[in-house]
Amino acid sequence: MILDGRALSQQRLEILKEKIQEAGISPHLATIIVGSDPGSRMYVRMKHKACEQVGIHSIGLELLESSLTDELIRRVRMLNEDPDIDGILIQLPLPVHIDSHQVLEAVSPAKDVDGFHTHNIGSLVAGMPGLTPCTPTGIMTILSDYHIPVAGAHAVVIGRSIDVGKPMASLLINADATVTVCHSKTSDLSYYTRHADIVISAAGRPKLITAGMIRPGATVIDVGINHVDGVLCGDVDFESVLEVAGAITPVPGGVGPMTIATLMENTYRAAMDACRPAQ
Ligand code: NAP
Description:
Blueprint: H1 5-23, E1 28-34, H2 38-54, E2 57-63, H3 69-81, E3 87-90, H4 100-106, H5 118-126, H6 134-145, E4 154-158, H7 165-174, E5 178-182, H8 189-193, E6 198-201, E7 219-222, E8 226-228, E9 231-233, H9 238-244, E10 247-248, H10 255-275
Parallel strand pairs: 1-2, 1-3, 4-5, 4-6, 6-7, 7-10
Antiparallel strand pairs: 8-9
Helix pairs in contact: 1-10, 2-10, 3-4, 6-7, 6-10
This protein binds NADP nicotinamide-adenine-dinucleotide phosphate (NAP).
NADP nicotinamide-adenine-dinucleotide phosphate binds near residues 158, 160, 189, 203 and 259.
């Protein structure tokens, strides 16, 4: 079975559009991009397009490559204080001279629709409510909407980054999976993947996962975004793994669209939370 993230994301966006209309709210997302990297610009455009599709108002701040950490933090604080803004997204990666951690920490946790603030990461690890990172949350949606059992399953996550691997592992643990996290220092990666019911690869290494590494019938989620000879591909050798896996996400058209749909859902959530009277 091919797990069609593109189709699923469209369904989710349609549902979200109705929810926003029914709630009678007008969520606002602010994006910040620094510099002119064409890839980053494309992602930001896609996010604004999704906003338009569901009825989220969006504004985009474009800062020069030469901008400094302090300037960026000042902008973030202005957005934090703006009652019209529900969600703030800082497009990563930031130029190397900017302290990304400081900038992400400046975002109000209530408006942190990317779920990268340590407050939200801490809530996730503690199993408390909060905004959770879009890519791993989108993967959990794929698993649940395709009725792939997670509770009791052995999930192997490849990658331990703060934006994908670690929150992915926490979400899976919170959903009662048994989780193994692998990384570049893991010896014999295939030993772990061959014993997995669910393999989630977020390494950014083309053809890292081959058919011999997958238990027949297992679910394979490919997070990787790689360019080989100008062609976009994931971490998984799709053609060969398709023969053994029970279910698999393609690249493109798998995890990527779900990341954007989840960003829209997080923005809606932040807007709804902002409407609720304080306890
Ligand atoms: P990252 O910060 O570079 O982390 C990569 C992780 O993979 C690290 O933990 C690294 O181990 C591990 N790794 C690298 N080579 C490995 C190998 N040969 N075997 C096992 N583990 C290995 O990247 P990221 O931000 O997590 O993103 C990962 C990939 O997902 C990238 O291709 C990125 O473009 C893509 N991505 C896609 C989406 C989407 O929406 N589709 C969203 C975010 C990211 P160490 O920790 O030991 O270095």
